Amino acid sequence: MNTFTSRFFYFPLLFLVIVLHFSVFGDSPHNPYGLKGVNELYLAICIIFALLLVLASAEEAPREFRVLMYYCLYSMVVFWVLPAVFAYFTYGQPIVYGLIEERRVLFCLGFAPVLFLSKRVSTLQFERAFIYAALFAAFLSWCFKFGVIPDMRPEVRSDDRPDRSSIGPFLICFGYFYCIQIWSKGASPISGAARSKTLYLVLAALLLLTLVFATQTRQLIVLCLAFTLFCLRAKAIIWAASLTILLSPFYFYPSLLELLGLNVEFYDSSLESVEDGARSITIAAIMNHLDIVNWLPSGSLSLMWQDGFIPYFGEHFFLSDVGIIGTLFRFGFLTFLVIPLTLMIYRRIAKNISPDMSFIYPVMLAYFVIWPLNGLMEYGQPVIAMLFVIHALKARHLRSQERIHERRTYSQLQSCY
To answer: Which end of the chain has fewer surrounding CB within 10 Å, N or C?
Structure first.
């Protein structure tokens, strides 16, 4: 690969694709810099790109690419098509509206452009593009918090906190995961090359501070802390002790938190009452609905079709806020089959790519912790796709390290890559 082309063409393109993959500029009520249609445009590019790669590669496609296409096919059929079909039979909603409602599942196809570009840069360049993208999202979050860049939303809901932003939050979280993993091992999770532990610890602290002070989303903070515990394991006690010492001044002098801009009232109210109004209303409505329909699948409705769920459950009904409970609503009794089967298939796919699961396991376990609050299968596909990309790059690196005379036959490689 030409060094000039890699550095000045594929590297910035990879940075841009990662930014789009994690919806840094995606339109949402909490993103002050969201642009309408950006997510849809990126999904259209992913669909076209994946189709072109399938047509162009055929039997010559790398094994990891073909295996990950099976992951996309399964995810799209189960979590994109089936809810639309269930909504058609339950509410009479045209299937096309159901597909529009669950379009975020198509982010699984994002692995194709990310993996394609990642193979055209070095491991260090990939890691830099990824970390730079996370730092870019953090930079925008701080710019919004301090008013450097004005809010671009046409209107802000009255119940939103004015200092809260959601600019690529899962990119920031994933960047934190990667930095902590490098700090823990002192080496790249992909190539095993030595990395500066101090640098990545500083970057991890910066990203975590962004989530605490700028993004201010409780479940993301819990997600990061859970990953830290699962990743460090034995070192977790030392990590917890260090955090206690570092945070002790804020315990004795709470006014310091206000000087730093932390919304103390928000986090204080969170400790006093874990219950969220809209969330508790949605959960109660779902359980009552499941009881009425005998736990039959109900799919999901789109606001573009007869105001979605509003005529049935009111304005405070959001499947996206109740995680696995929302999955129960979509699939009913089938949830108890779909979820274990999906986890088994995802694990089998990862094992087929590479047997080393040292990074995948802590990430997935951390997401299980917040599963009651965030739909992993429906809304976490950008994260899962990126996990598989990193896993595939690791397998590719391991394959490249084998000496020519030591390389095994294709049948022997199947259990490793």
So the answer is: N
